[in-house]
Specification:
The chain has eleven helices and no strands. It is mainly α. The protein folds into two domains: 134 residues, no CATH class; 78 residues. The termini are far apart.
């Protein structure tokens, strides 16, 4: 009996040692964890990520019947410019803190030292989150009810903000390049549809016949179809910029 007890005890000790040596090490990167949502999440939650990218999504993502007017575009641009100017100091300061924390981690500084560095950024990220949320609210006020409804129905449905690793500068630049290329490649169709929709509105207002209205619609239909396809391609390109981990968070581009 004593031998059986000894063997059993030995087995338990060996198992315990085995578990201790093979247990997964805590690999949570506190710097990366802190960077998630550090610059705000209000725009990421709707598939815009930052002020510039959200502005471009609004300019290019909405269907032609709901496109922003020139006045709306000007107002949104003014809001974004003001937001960027008023938050620049905080955004730069937070970037510096994150850079300092990353350097400390590379230098194998203690968790306490790294935390002390990151803690300096807590009030900054709180201010930035509030500023971005206000920007979103201010932009919403510029939009029509129909535009807001479309955005709500075409934003990411299952965005887990706590899982979305922030876009890198390279990713942001690539997304902006795709947006700019869309506008340049589709300039003629965008202008043709804009003019056609204006004619359509005037025809309906002035009481033109159904045949006249249909003629206008038929005239712009090829351009509308091409733009629908181009917008679908653009959204696919934007999503293709995301890493598998970012896609897995569900925080995909608006559209």
């Amino acid at each position: 009996m004593r031998r059986i007890a000894f063997v059993s005890l030995a087995a338990l000790v060996i198992a315990a040692c085995s578990k201790e040596s093979t247990a997964p090490v805590n690999t949570v990167d506190e710097v990366t964890d802190f960077s998630i949502g550090a610059f705000g999440t209000a725009l990421t939650s709707v598939g815009g990520y930052d002020a510039d990218l959200y502005q471009l999504r609004l300019f290019h993502g909405l269907p032609d019947a709901l496109k922003l007017t020139s006045d709306q575009e000007a107002k949104i641009k003014a809001l974004v410019d003001a937001y960027k100017a008023s938050t620049k100091a905080d955004r730069d300061a937070l970037e510096a803190i994150l850079h300092q924390a990353r350097d400390a981690k590379k230098a194998n500084k203690s968790d306490a030292e790294i935390k002390a560095i990151l803690d300096q950024g807590i009030p900054i990220r709180t201010r930035l989150a509030a500023a971005e949320a206000k920007l979103k609210t201010d932009i919403d006020a510029v939009l029509t009810a129909e535009q807001r409804a479309w955005l709500a129905s075409h934003g990411p449905k299952k965005c887990k903000l706590s899982k979305f690793l922030p876009l890198t500068d390279a990713q942001k630049a690539q997304m902006k390049a795709f947006e700019e290329a869309f506008e340049k490649a589709n300039k003629a169709d965008l202008e043709a549809v804009k003019a056609g929709l204006k004619d359509l509105k005037e025809a309906i207002t002035s009481g033109k016949s159904a045949a006249d209205v249909q003629k206008i619609l038929d005239g712009i239909k090829p351009a509308l179809d091409r733009l629908d396809a181009a917008r679908a391609t653009l959204k696919s390109q934007l999503e293709g910029v995301l890493t598998p981990e970012q896609k897995a968070s569900g925080c995909v581009p608006l559209g």
